[in-house]
Each structure stands twice: as C-alpha cells, then as structure tokens.
UniProtKB/TrEMBL annotation:
Protein family (similarity comment): Belongs to the aldehyde dehydrogenase family.
UniProt GO MF annotations: aldehyde dehydrogenase (NAD+) activity
Pfam family, one: Aldedh
Organism annotation: Trematosphaeria pertusa
Official protein name in the record: aldehyde dehydrogenase (NAD(+))
Domain of life: Eukaryota
Broadest EC class assigned to this enzyme: oxidoreductase
Amino acid sequence: MSPSKTLSIDFEKFYNIIDGKQRGSDKIHHGINPATGQELWDVPIASEQDLNDAVAAGKKAFPAWRDTPIEKRKELLMKFVDLVGQYSDELTTLLCKESGKPRKFAAIEVAGVGGFVAYHCSLDIPTETYEDDEKTIYTEYTPLGVCGGIVPWNFPLILSVGKVAPALLTGNAIIIKPSPFTPYTGLKMVELMQEVFPAGVVQVVGGNNELGAQLCLHPDVAKISFTGSIATGKKVMEASAKTLKRVTLELGGNDASIILPDVDIKKVAPEVVMGAFQNSGQVCVATKRIYIHESIYKDFLQEMVNFTKTIKVGNPDDGDNLLGPIQNSMQYEKVKGFFADSKAKGYKFAAGEPDIAASKGFFIQPTIIDNPPNDSRIIAEEPFGPIVPTQPWSDIDEVVARANNTNTGLGACVWGKDVEKAAKVARRLEAGSVFVNSWEKPTPQATFGGHKESGIGGEWGKTGLLAFMNAHVIHVYKS
C-alpha cells in the first residue's frame, strides 16, 4: 500500500509543466497502449514558444537554485522521495498502460525513482586542493545552468530521474522531454515535483523530434543529456555543436555474453536468457550476442531453450507474465524484420516462431537463433526486441576479439565459476559496463556510459555528477 496522499492528483489529465504551472496546447497527441493497440489519454504537444518560455523560466530560477546550499537541495530531493512514494500504485498502473511492461517490473521501475534520488543524496560534490610554497590551487565544480534531458520510451521513469537527480543535486535547472511514445509517467513525475521545488527548477515539455532538435539548438541550454539510438545521438551532437553545448550521449549497444566452460549450466542458462529478454529485449544493455564454449554448447543451449519455453508473454493485467509487448508499432515492425531475415536465410530457430502472428497488441515470443554466421544481421545489428543469437567458441583470444568486433561498446557479461578468471576476461572487453556472473544491471552507484559509438561521457555514480558541472580552478598565490 502507498502511504496516505497529501495531494489530489488527476492521473488521467496531462500537461506540460512550465515555470511551475500546468500548460495545455491546441495541438495534442496520445500514446498507444501496446498490449491492446488502444489510444491512451491526450497529451499537449509543446510549441517552440512553450520551449522558449521553459528555458527562460529555467534561466531565471537557476541563480537562486545554484546558490541554495547542497544540504538544502538534498532535503528537497528527499522530500520528493517521500511524495513520489505516496503515488507508487498510480504511477505503476500508468507505466503498465504506456509501456506494456508486466506489473511487477513496472513496480520495480517506479520504486527505483526513490532509490535513485536517495542514492544521489548520499553523494557530495568532489573538490581537490594542491599546495606548494608559492600557491594553493583549489579545484571546485560549478553547475552548468539550464540542462535538457531527452528520454527514450523503454524506461521512461527511471531514465528521467537518472537525469533529474544529478542535475538538481549539482545545482542545475533541467527541462525533461519525454518520448512521445511514453509521455505519461514523465509528465506526472515532473508535475509532482512542483510541490517540492521552486518554479522553473525542473520542467517538462512533451513533443516530437522537432522539439528535441529545438532544445539542442537553443542558445540558453548549457547541456543535453540524451538516451536513445546511435543515429539520433549523432544528430543531437551535431545540433548541440552549434553552441558548443556539453553533451552526454547514452546510445545503443550490441552486448556480448561470454560463457566459460566451467559454469553451472542449469543455474546460469536461465539467467543468460533473462539478460537477453528482460523488458522484451528493449534494453540498451540487453544481452544481444551469446558466445558459449563449444564443450557445453549443446547442453547450455538446450537449457536456454527449456527456460525460454516457460516464459509467459502477455498483457500487464494477465497475472504472472515475465514479458509484455514491444512498446510501439515502429519498433515491432523493425523486430519483425530480424525474424524475416533469419527465416529467409534459413537460420535455425532453436526456440520461438519464425512467423509472427498478428494480434491486437505488439507481442513477440522470445526467440533464440542457433549459430547464425558472423556477418548475419542478427549478429551485426541491435534488434531491440526478444530475439537473440548464440554461437560456440573454443579459443578465448578469438572469442574476445569476436565480442569486441563491433562499433558499439555499452555493456557485456562474462559467466564462469572461477571468478578471478572471468574478471580477467571482463577487463579485455571494450564496453562501458561489464558484468561478471550477472546479466546487465546498471545501477546509480556507478557511472554509466558507453565506449565507441555507444556514447560519449557518462552519468550516475560519484564521477557522473561531474557531467553536470564545469571545473572551476582557483589559483591563490601567497603574497
């Protein structure tokens, strides 16, 4: 049960939040419930004027917020944690409707909001002092100003708060732009924040790619924090370059999982499957390529297939499902392309159906492709859906090279009983976050970012705070 409510919030009406006030628009759009195909509530599309007003409000609010002592900023952030906790049931229901994810996973994401903010409140902004006979040098960090956060549709709440928490803690103002596919929870979270934070400190404007481009081009926005595809990330960087905005880009991945020959097959195989199919594979750090030692390949694959066949896929309201639908029709069509390609090339479907039956919702049964060639589309590209290839390996140097042979480097996993040996392999993988004996589970306690085309910079963790700050070095010479 949620704690008793202090406010009456309407979870069926949605607004942009500009300068602390709710704002509608004469242009509206709506999300689609991916489990039923039905239209959800109207949401306003922000105009360029709305965005300009939000930036102006952020600019006005920034100096006072920057000068608010960090302890007071933390106090307000923790006040928001208490407030958001009162609405966890409503936010969970809303997240189920807009994303299609099963209720227990939606509840985990909603609970993560409070956890994310609370962890950031345990951090302090680092400083350094250097002294010699002649001078003392103080390295301090100052906030950037008005930041923009562009959020994707796969984890609309946690990826919003992953930008808001460090931005506010470090003294910035921030404007969130949720995905038009999943606008609802992001709009509601920022609406709730108005009860706690001064007007203009945290705002939200909903809209399409055009609005995102305007945010990147705006001369009074100091930083863009973007999570999404590599192709869009390049456009964000190009637009932001015109004013030399700071950018943090967390982009797509093609994560490799290497299974060493000493694993406990029965225990590990289901975990590896979860890494590939959690959130229906719609995770930038989902396992996308599975490399199994040849001595256990057949047995390990069989255990993966056995577990995959038990996975229930369905509507969030249908009880104990592990997976929901693909979130939107565009992505659904894209994922179906991987099935069509794998079927046309005659690859072996170890689990799952090569033909996807259309239903009202965008449902796909989780699928394993057994040993497709290295140049196959399913190995080379990121499907962002519940379809994953497996391949055998025999030589550790060769499989590490195979795992690293990609333009991406977001996450990776190594599984083995000998933890020291597995960690040695992990250190050779070119990825921002490597997990030993776990599938990919990024946490706010460590910085999160990618190598190569998986992004630039990183956020979260203690070092992630610096992504929202400029170094400010004071050199004091002794008289």
